[in-house]
């Protein structure tokens, strides 16, 4: 870590700068892909600190790859702020939160399903990506983004990898019916659902 020395009222105090080991990375195909191949790419998180909110920007080579769709099946994110945004220049952004904090490795945030458009080495890189600590203060921490690549070539057999399809219905975690405080003749229905 970095050692900072502070001079305060003529006294010397030392403070240790804290590095939080929080990292975004991708899990995708390792083999060379053919033109037209479809494959899932998982955006995952490794953290030694409990976190419960996420803001992610992932860049990709839009000349070589096309995003077909996204899937939150199996995600640690329970509440997406908005649907993931896919920009023509080759960037995907999304943000969301977890009802329960996450601490550990390979916490799945989102799966992107891609199609290979032409041959080349396509790079993926994170920018402006953050997590928020589950410390009661929502402390914003910049996460390290680990870059990755996918290689595609002419003449390689086209494999349509099983893109993740979210066809399971969500499950209801909490359901309540309460009196309407404005109209006593009505009831209000509240619920929390999780989509695995």
Please tell me about this protein's structure.
With 196 residues, the chain is an all-beta fold. Helix content is 0%, strand content 61%. The chain contains no helices and 16 strands. It has strands spanning 3-8, 11-16, 22-27, 33-34, 38-59, 65-71, 79-80, 85-87, 91-116, 120-126, 130-133, 140-142, 144-145, 148-153, 171-179, 187-194. Strands 3, 4, 5, 6, 7, 8, 9, 10, 11, 12, 13 and 14 form a twelve-stranded mixed sheet that branches. It has a two-stranded antiparallel ribbon with strand order 1-2. It is globular. Residues 1-19 have low confidence and may be disordered.
Number of strands: 16
H and E string = EEEEEEEEEEEEEEEE
Mean pLDDT: 84
User: What is the makeup of the main sheet?
Assistant: 12 strands, mixed
Secondary structural class: mainly beta
Q: What is the C-alpha radius of gyration, as a whole number of Å?
A: 22 Å
Shape: globular
Q: What is the straight-line distance between the termini? A: 39 Å
Indicate the low-confidence ranges by residue numbers. 1-19
Strand content: over 45%
Helix percentage: under 10%
Number of helices: 0
List the helices and strands and how they pair.
Layout: E1 3-8, E2 11-16, E3 22-27, E4 33-34, E5 38-59, E6 65-71, E7 79-80, E8 85-87, E9 91-116, E10 120-126, E11 130-133, E12 140-142, E13 144-145, E14 148-153, E15 171-179, E16 187-194
Parallel strand pairs: 3-13, 4-14
Antiparallel strand pairs: 1-2, 3-5, 5-9, 5-10, 5-11, 6-9, 7-9, 8-9, 10-14, 11-12, 15-16
